[in-house]
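Researcher: Please translate sequence to structure tokens.
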Amino acid sequence: MWLTVANPATGPLTGISGTSSTDVWAVGWEGTVLHYDGAAWTRVTTGTGQDPINVWARSPNDVWIVGTDGSVAPPDGLGFPTIQHYDGAHWSIVASPSRGTLTGIWSSSLSNAWAVTTAGEILHFDGANWSIVQSQSQQTLWSIWGSSASDVWVVGSGVILHYDGSKWSTAFTPPLMLYAVWGTSASDVWAGGTAGLFHYDGVSWSSIATGFGPNRNASEQSAEIYAIWASSPSNVWIGGRSHAISNGTCCAQMEHYNGTRSASISMTPTEPIIRAMWGSSASNVWAVTQDGILHGTRR
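Model: Translation complete:
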């Protein structure tokens, strides 16, 4: 069952991550940073004025937020990139070497974090400073996830990149944009976007049939995957927007993959687009949308 949860956000939410059922973070426009303590969502002041885009929580004392400073600035008009870090007590701004908008972040330890940008850059944090690493791609990059320090995946515009602990390389070239990547192990990785849903089994990438994908006729829009979260190969949640257009606007679409097939989850037609998902267990999953937060307690 999925329910809308009360929260103090004043604008669209774009990212969510956590470490447990009582430690969940959500971020979004207008400088929104929210925290869930197991009882309620509250607004957190970071003191930076950043417009967050995404968040990664590895532990209660290691939380990263990436986004922009809210200005209209080059190269993409979305503002200068900013990075924030929470050490369990205080938020701080960490200098970014990039001019591209930061869209995704992931870390395996306090001295090993990665971030990606709209300029096709991959950034690395060594515990002291961020630096730009050659990514073998000039494409827009949207999301990053890893199973370990030597197994990291990045997705973007027609590309999937992989880091093996020593170098980045192109692993797969889907036909269209990918916005999300998530996995449960080195042999169970998922990626999705306009191109649909793809799965990596430890050997190769393959397409998985879902209701998402490019528009099928002139009266439709592409049904795009923006969010993926999984607890096992047979419990995969997929969220985004649907083919349908209601009153000139698009609607949310959510599906669940059980290891064999993907099934659509009934949603209110006017439900806003799902932007990100995260869960602490198979029966405790969160989704953030352009208009709020959804909580799922099934499966």
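Researcher: Any highlights?
Model: Residues 215 and 222 are 4 Å apart (CA to CA).
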